[in-house]
Design brief:
heterodimer, A: 171 residues, alpha+beta, 5-stranded antiparallel β-sheet, 23% strand, B: 798 residues, Arylsulfatase, C-terminal domain, Jelly Rolls, 10-stranded mixed β-sheet, 6-stranded antiparallel β-sheet, 20% strand, globular
Chain lengths: 171, 798
């Protein structure tokens, strides 16, 4: 799957528990193998604009899994500093820098920046572009969806960077 | 002395000197009555007149509603509830009828105060031969004060230049503290005190409803401090529950979850409580939901949760008002005045407002400016400005869904603006006067109307309606005192006939019969396509569908009997036209003339100069920069150490503009009613010394909401710029004003919110607006017409 081109969706919610509901539904689809994702994260942004990850799901549909490469990819594209807070090794700075660079060069950062304003909850997911209809139909309670593209090669490099960072090798 | 006074002519002439004057004091005899102030008649009560705003019959707990109103409960228990009391269905018209005791069109208020029109019924100019009854109280020995919303001064007369003859002080109030317009932010009002706009209060945690009670109590204490027995009259006119629905979390949290059942169920619950309380007859029927509103069960979960939050905020906002009124009542009681105080507490100047459209809105100015937003966009904008938690805070200017208004008006049909139906016109009233009312806790069901209040107060005070005031012969009041009803629940009603008309919606009441003649327009629809149907030569008001109700056995207007009584329909239709002619209701839609090509003369002034100390220019009086090219230039002195701060700003982040210096550069921010923000910045630092800065907006075309290019200049050199895709077509704010050298109230650009009001640290010599640099006369005329149409739409919602 790593050579596939991906969509990144940030779905914004007015109601946090409806975000949780859609998150659960999305992860269930993955668990039932009806959908393939690199990773999915449930995030909230407080009224001061500080984002935090509430829950994650990996490519096997496991919730709360440790930050593997796929989940790291999701979180890093959404917010490199958030990834830094989750990858607790001395190598976090390097991986954050690579994600930040990718966001700037791809224009992803600008697009995603305003997707989750203060006071909102959201779901961030990366999935095979061919499954966009399924994802769209599952995130039924979102009031806004911002979608960007990531090519397979770039995603592969970023995942590798996450893996390196977790192993304490990145820099 | 009292008995000898002629109180029919005001001011009361000084009494003849009854003493003796000699060349010296020797042998001279004094007459102390000659220098005594004029007393109120013996036994006259103090009067507290309370009116809340945009609130419905089915809101307060006293009348079966879900909003806790212990003060109204308390007064009702010690006084009387009135369940057939009526307003006009719109803000200013109701206030005009209340203050003058006359029909609203007869005193020029067929429309709201923002819009002075070219016909007698719509002039928004209180006539000198219909002076407010408070002038009579003032001239007869009462101390008088008005707190809160006024809404009877035309927009173009609200500035420092006056004229002031239609401000509260000129029509009988010794003291005024409040706001002149139709609405106000609760956290950032522009306060007017007497004849001066004193601006936005800067104290932390300021909340207008709380401050208003403080001011009223302070004034009452002041009156008693200086006279132990002087009669007083206080008009306590709350900004709540008009939009923006602003309230602290403490109050909205009290209703958390209280509206999760939705509006359909809420109507049923309220209706059941109303019957249990006996405030509606046992045989009353609940009117059905109109097709224009969705069933609660048809909504998705996001909408249900958002809408529930909207009503929680509205309920908290309204409950706070009743609590504050309770504080005022407590103060009156503590002074020992309550027993001889006539309290008239009116819950709403019209029915609850449906002007938020079906979705409700994060910013009511979007509706007022005719900015079309889909339901999805409204949700996204709620998200943008802080989500559900921010609904009710200063980050939004919110108004709830029209369907909540409908529920607030239980058990009736429709709401504000709809003068043809009880949802727009019937509001709760409670009267409390311990020294007079014996049947405490009783209910009164005689037909009563807002224009009855003045005559009632005068009769209670033992005062005649004056024949002349300041040499001007006065027209008789049209209202009928309801004082007779205090003593007798079964007394035959004396106000037996009353027309209703607002925005083409007509009603005719006579002896229990009510003809409803509604213009076929959904009240929140004011788009050009809708209005085309009502253009001259297109609309025939005679052909509008009629409904007929007999209220003595149909309390709620649930059973239309027009088909069974065609002769009664005809009789009431003819009577309506007679009354309409008599009281200047004609031409119908006289307040919407500009929609149909009748616009005021073109303004001659195109340059507006503001010196550096001008603040709080009323939102309706800022330079007319809308919909065409304009420039703002400023002459500054920048010290060697540099400067920062606002050069000029209008309104706030939900609509407005600011030219300011920040981090050494010149910046311009333009907020398109909170939907989009456009920012421009100079590329180079601002120099020091004498500096001229200029912002030029070059419109794409002189047309409503035009986009255009902004260029920033420093000393005539272009230093930056950018594009504004959409501009505000009618009005940035309903209340926030324009300031030079600072940005009072909420900031336009929230990047300097932590430094508000972000006063300029250099010197501003002057700021000049040039509003007519490029437009041809033909374009100007066309534009002029369009802008006034937009303003008319704004005014309807005010």
């Amino acid at each position: 799957m790593s050579d596939t081109d991906f969509d990144v969706v940030i779905a914004a919610y007015l109601i946090p528990d409806l975000a949780q509901q859609d998150f659960n539904a999305l992860v269930k689809l993955v668990e039932d193998k009806q959908l393939e994702v690199e990773g999915v994260a449930l995030v909230t942004v407080d009224t001061d604009g500080n984002a935090s990850v509430q829950e994650t799901g990996d490519h096997l549909g496991r919730k709360g899994a440790k930050v593997g490469a796929g989940v790291g990819l999701v979180v890093g594209l959404f917010s490199p500093p958030l990834l830094a807070s989750m990858v607790v090794t001395g190598a976090a700075g390097g991986v954050v820098g690579r994600f930040a660079k990718h966001r700037v060069e791809s224009g992803l950062g600008e697009k995603m920046g305003a997707a989750l304003p203060p006071g909102s909850a959201g779901i961030v997911a990366i999935y095979d572009r061919g499954k966009s209809d399924t994802v769209d139909a599952t995130l039924v309670n979102a009031v806004k969806k911002s979608i960007a593209q990531v090519d397979g090669g770039g995603a592969k490099q970023l995942k590798a960077a996450v893996a390196e960072a977790q192993a304490g090798m990145g820099g | 002395m009292t008995d000898q006074m002629d109180r029919t002519v005001l001011p009361i002439r000084r009494p003849p000197f009854q003493g003796v004057t000699n060349r010296t004091l020797g042998g001279s005899e004094p007459d102390w009555n000659f220098v005594a102030p004029i007393p109120a008649p013996e036994g006259a009560p103090n009067v507290l007149l309370v009116m809340t705003d945009d609130a419905g019959f089915g809101n307060p707990s006293t009348f079966g509603g879900p909003i806790s109103t212990p003060t109204l409960d308390r007064l009702a228990a010690g006084g009387l509830k009135y369940n057939r009391f009526h307003t006009t269905a719109l803000c200013s018209p109701t206030r005009a009828a209340l203050m003058t005791g006359r029909n609203h069109h007869a005193v020029g208020f067929g429309m709201v105060g923002e819009f002075a029109g070219p016909f007698p019924g719509y002039s928004a100019m209180l006539p000198k031969d219909c002076e407010p009854f408070v002038k009579t109280l003032q001239g007869n020995g009462y101390s008088t004060a008005c707190f809160g919303k006024w809404h009877l001064t035309p927009d173009h007369m609200q500035g420092t230049a006056g004229p002031f003859d239609r401000w509260p002080n000129a029509v009988g109030f010794d003291y005024f503290w409040g706001f002149l317009g139709g609405e106000s932010g609760q956290f950032d009002p522009v306060i007017t005190e007497n004849n001066k706009a004193v601006g936005v209060p800067e104290q932390e945690d300021f909340y207008l409803p709380d401050a208003m009670a403080d001011k009223a109590i302070e004034w009452l204490h002041g009156v008693r401090a200086h006279s132990s027995d002087k009669r007083w009259f206080a008009y306590y006119s709350t900004s709540a529950s008009h939009a923006p629905h602003h309230v602290t979390r403490e109050w909205s949290e009290r209703y958390k979850g209280a509206f999760d059942q939705g509006w359909d169920r809420l109507r049923e619950e309220t209706f059941a409580r109303q019957k249990r309380l006996g405030v509606i007859p046992a045989d009353a029927e609940l009117t059905p939901r109109p097709d224009a509103m969705p069933a609660w069960d048809s909504l998705d979960e996001t909408h249900k949760r958002l809408y529930a939050r909207q009503m929680e905020v509205y309920a908290g906002y309204s409950a706070n008002v009743d609590w504050n009124i309770g504080r005022v009542i407590d103060a009156i009681e503590e002074m020992g005045d309550l027993d001889n105080t006539l309290v008239i507490y009116i819950w709403g100047d019209n029915g609850a407002s449906m002007e938020g459209t079906l979705s409700g809105t994060f910013n009511e100015l979007t509706t007022m400016n005719g900015v079309p937003l889909t339901d999805e966009q409204q949700l996204q904008l709620v998200l943008k400005w802080g989500g559900l938690e921010a609904w009710g805070t200063e980050l939004m200017s919110p108004h709830y869904s029209a369907a909540w208004a409908w529920a607030s008006n239980t058990p009736f049909q429709w709401g504000k603006q709809v003068a043809s139906h009880l949802g727009g016109t019937r509001d709760p009233m409670v009267v409390h006067w311990p020294e007079r009312i014996k049947a405490r806790g009783g209910l009164r069901s005689q037909f009563t109307h807002i224009n009855d209040v003045g005559p009632t107060i005068l009769e209670a005070a033992g005062l005649p309606q004056p024949t002349h005031i300041n040499g001007v012969e006065q027209q008789p009041m049209h209202g009928t005192s309801f004082l007779y009803s205090l003593d007798d629940a079964t007394a035959a009603e004396r106000h037996t006939q009353q027309y209703f008309e607002v925005l083409g919606n007509r009603g005719m009441y006579k002896d229990g019969w009510w003809l409803s003649w509604m213009m076929p327009r959904i009240p929140w629809k004011l788009d050009p396509e809708t209005l085309k149907r009502f253009a001259p030569g297109v609309w025939d008001p005679e052909s509008d569908p009629v409904e007929l109700y007999y209220l003595p056995n149909d309390f709620t207007q649930a059973r239309n009997v027009a088909d069974q009584h065609p002769e009664k329909v005809k009789e009431l239709q003819e009577l309506f036209w007679q009354e309409a002619e008599k009281y200047h209701v004609l031409p119908l839609l006289g307040g919407l003339t500009t929609f149909f090509g009748i616009t005021p003369p073109l303004p001659s002034q195109s340059r507006f100069t503001f010196y550096g100390d001008v603040q709080n220019v009323a939102s309706g009086m800022i330079p007319p920069i809308y919909n065409h090219s304009y420039t703002i230039s400023a002459e500054l002195e920048i010290p060697q150490s540099g400067a920062e701060g606002v050069i000029v700003a209008e309104a706030d982040h939900l609509g407005g503009f600011a030219l300011f210096v920040q981090d050494g550069t010149l910046k311009h921010t333009y907020s398109f009613v909170g939907v989009q923000e456009f920012r421009q910045e100079s590329r180079t630092p601002l120099p020091t010394g004498s500096v001229n800065v200029r912002m030029e907006f070059a419109a794409d075309a002189p047309k409503p909401a035009t986009g255009g290019e902004v260029t920033l200049y420093v000393n005539d050199e272009p230093v930056g710029g950018g594009r504004i895709e959409h501009t505000v077509p009618a009005r940035f704010s309903a209340y926030a004003g324009l300031d030079i050298g600072r940005d009072n109230g909420m900031p336009v650009d929230r990047s300097y919110a932590d430094k508000s009001p972000f006063a300029f640290t250099g010197t501003i010599k002057r700021v000049v607006f040039d509003v007519n640099p490029h437009v041809s006369e033909e374009h100007e005329r066309e534009l002029h017409e369009q802008i006034h149409q937009a303003l008319a739409a704004h005014a309807i919602n005010a």
